[in-house]
Design a protein that fits this description.
Blueprint (H helix, E strand, L loop, with lengths): L10 E6 L1 H18 L7 E6 L3 H10 L5 E8 L12 E4 L9 E9 L3 H11 L5 E9 L12 E5 L5 E2 L15 E4 L10
Parallel strand pairs: 2-3, 2-5, 5-6, 6-7
Antiparallel strand pairs: 1-9, 3-4, 8-9
This protein binds inosinic acid and magnesium ion.
The site of magnesium ion has 3 residues, from loops.
Length: 189
């Protein structure tokens, strides 16, 4: 018997299957390719950690040339509710002035993380700046942020998988899922 539990034992239900996600990413890649067809330059900025799986699939679905860079932001800690405070943990490697920049994020919830990112990147004077988010929880929005490319709208439920974590775990699940209540139990002890 293995000492390590199976992540799937903590899953209550699958909200978006791996196939459904991959299908949608192909559509998003086509849309992005079309919109940027006249631009030589395209830079995808991955918002760590949550965006790393989405970035790698979206990047591979794009047939056109593009660069990638990474930025790390913290807004959640180990809780399931946003603190509202956003902190820059790691900055981009290169300047972005004059470049066509597309931010790749896992989820837009209150909108505070993306508002902070959008405003701080805009101040660096890119040629253009757009946002691509895999998930959107519209019912939780507190601030208005323009999101040009959206994968899926979901209900106000805490989800994990495909880059999204709870307490740093579950990011490696290939689908988006809801956890069983017992997983959260220690938060209320
Ligand atoms: P916002 O600043 O409230 O829009 O929160 C965005 C960030 O919160 C995302 O980048 C995620 O890291 C995290 N987050 C929001 N909702 C969820 C969720 O349902 N599961 C896991 N992380 C989430
Ligand atoms: Mg995140």
């Amino acid at each position: 018997m293995s000492k390590v539990r199976d992540l799937q034992d903590d899953i209550a239900s699958i909200m978006l299957s791996a196939d459904v996600i991959q299908q949608r990413i192909q559509e998003l890649a086509q849309e992005i390719s079309k919109d940027y067809q006249d631009e030589e330059d395209l830079l995808l900025i991955c918002v760590l950690k949550g965006g790393y799986i989405f970035l790698s699939d979206l990047s591979r679905a794009l047939q056109r040339p593009h660069d990638v860079d990474f930025m790390a932001i913290s807004s959640y800690g180990n809780q399931t509710k946003s603190s509202g405070a956003v902190q820059l943990i790691m900055d981009l490697k290169e300047p972005i002035n004059g470049r066509h920049v597309l931010i790749v994020e896992d989820i837009i919830d209150s909108g505070r993380t993306l508002q902070y990112l959008h405003d701080s990147l805009l101040a660096r004077q890119p040629a253009s700046l757009r946002i691509c988010s895999l998930l959107n929880k519209p019912s939780r929005r507190e601030v208005d942020v323009p999101v040009e490319y959206m994968g899926f709208e979901i209900e106000d439920e805490f989800v994990v998988g495909y880059g999204l974590d709870f307490g740093e775990k579950y990011r490696n699940l290939p689908y988006i899922a809801v956890l069983k209540p017992h997983v959260f139990a220690h938060l209320f002890e």
